[in-house]
Amino acid sequence: MDARELALILHETIEKRIAPLRERLDALEARPELKYLGTHKPGQRYERGNLTTCSGSLWHCNDAETLERPGESAAWTLVAKRGSDGRGAPTELAREWSR
Fold first, then answer.
1. What are phi and psi of 52, to 5 degrees?
2. What is the pTM of this model?
3. Residue 99 to residue 89: CA distance in whole angstroms
4. In this structure, which CATH number among 2.10.10.20, 3.40.50.20, 1.25.40.10, 2.40.170.10 belongs to the domain 35-80?
5. Which residues of the chain carry a pLDDT beneath 50?
């Protein structure tokens, strides 16, 4: 076996081994990019991967595109629900959390 034949065999072997990795990388790169667009704006077009805040909660857009308000259709998934405002919490606890 000469050097050229060996190089061809090595090339083919390496290509077979990395083909699944290339496919996986292509699939990962095809995923939508997560992008925070701030507070929800009525009439704004949102795309898959967009994140927005609506009524104090964080929402992820699942659809290719939507104009709907988060929480009113399957176009949105709740990521983080709005928490309580802390009113009525003991003063000492409030001081501890503000540090």
1. -145, 155
2. 0.62
3. 15
4. 2.10.10.20
5. none
